[in-house]
Amino acid sequence: MRNKKNIRLIIFFCLFLGLFFLQGCQNKVHEDKKTVKSHETQQATGGAEGEDTGYIYGKVKETMNSGGYTYMLLEFEGKDFWVAVPEMKVAVGQEVMLLPGDTMKNFHSNSLNRTFDTIIFSRGLASGQGMGSTEATQTSQEGHAGVPKLAKWDIHVTPAKGENAITVEMAYKKAKELDGKKVVLKAQVVKISKNILGKNWLHVQDGTGSMKDKDFDLTVTTHSAPQVGAIVTIEGTLHKDKDIGAGYFYPVIIEDAKITATK
Questions:
Q1: Any idea what the Cα angle at residue 125 is, between residues 59 and 128, rounded to 5°?
Q2: Domains of the chain
Q3: Which residues contact 136 (CB under 8 A, 6 or more apart)?
């Protein structure tokens, strides 16, 4: 009697293991099919796995059409990166603002026979955004993540006065305290990039800060367009750790500033 019972238990256990193994195989086949389908979709549509970026903008340094797509090497604030969009007309030297897209690592283009370490696939131009030539007012560039590669100018600007007055160095050292507050800064314009996201992007210095601490140069957005070399009074809102999308991050920035020329 006991032997029959043991045999039944053994048979039941074997059936259970068989069903468990079969289910595992089916799940593996299902996942493999999903992987293949996902890969085929990416190759056919130019889509990519990865986080959706913010709006993409920059100056075209290199471009080519292939396989129904326009590939562009863009530069913004010293950073170069590749973007692909459905085929469109674009020329070297133009500025573009593109719709958000997905980032693909190690993407191989069969039509170009080329592998891109990183490339963003965008749906095309952002609504209402045109393209125009860039006026380069200074050849110095800055680095990614808001870390300036601009040289520190040999200047000394008399600081602004008043309750909200700061210097460039103070903007960095007191960024947490000043985050979201109105500030007044007197400084000299050392670089300007025009008409990006509907604003002009300035780099200003006042002689404070150091190359070592990277707190000598400050980014300012404005609708004004002062000349490089002009000493100006800047009134705007300071923000700490500002992420504007597409991988651009500023530890300190003054936004929507009112610029007044200083004699």
A1: 105
A2: 56-122 (2.40.50), 144-261 (2.40.50.140)
A3: none
Output the CA torsion 257→191→84→62 (10° steps).
Answer: 160
State the Cα–Cα distance between residues 205 and 151, nearest whole angstrom. 10
Q: What is the pLDDT of residues 191-202, one digit of tens each?
A: 888 877 778 899
Q: What is the CA radius of gyration of the chain?
A: 27
Regarding beta strands 218-222 and 231-245, do their DSSP bridges make them parallel or antiparallel, or are they unpaired?
unpaired
For the chain, the distance separating the N- and C-terminal CA atoms, rounded to the nearest angstrom, is 109
The CA distance from 173 to 167, in Å, is 10
Answer for the pair 179, 240: CB distance below 8 angstroms, yes or no.
yes
Over residues 204-229, the pLDDT tens digits come to 999 999 988 999 999 999 999 999 89
SS3 assignment, position 149: coil
CB 157 within 8 A of CB 184: no
> How much is the mean pLDDT over the chain?
75
Write down the pLDDT at residue 147. 40
**Helix, strand or coil, per DSSP, at residue 7:** helix
- Residues 241, 246, 174: CA angle, nearest 5 degrees: 10
